[in-house]
Amino acid sequence: MLFRQKKHKRFNYVPRSLKDDSKEDHSIKEEWQSVRASHKRKAKSQSPLIVFMIILGMVIVLWMVLCNYEM
Questions:
Q1: Tally of domains in the chain
Q2: Which domain holds residue 71?
Q3: Residue 45 domain-assigned?
C-alpha cells in the first residue's frame, strides 16, 4: 500500500478505419455528385468554342467570296 501502482487509463479512442459513420458514406456520395456535376460543366464549356469556330469559318468563307466578287 505504500507504493500504489497507477491504474490503467482507458481512452475512448476508436481508429478511423473502425468507425462506421453514415456521415462518411454521405460525404462520399456528395463528393461524387459534385465531381459528376463539374464534369458536365466542362462539357458545356466546350460548346461555345465549337460555335466560335463555326462562326469564324463562316466569316472566312464570306470574306473569300466577297474578295472574289471584287475581281
A1: 1
A2: 32-71
A3: yes
Q: What is the 3-state secondary structure (H, E, C) of the chain?
A: CCCCCCCCCCCCCCCHHHCCCHHHHHHHHHHHHHHHHHHHHHHHHHHHHHHHHHHHHHHHHHHHHHHHHHC
Assigned C-alpha cell, 5: 501502482
For position 60, what pLDDT does the model report?
96
User: CA 1 to CA 11: how far, in whole Å?
Assistant: 26
20 falls in which pLDDT band (50, 70, 90)? Answer: low
Distance from C-alpha of 5 to C-alpha of 7, rounded to nearest angstrom: 6
Residue 23 has pLDDT above 60, yes or no: no
Does the global pTM surpass 0.70? no
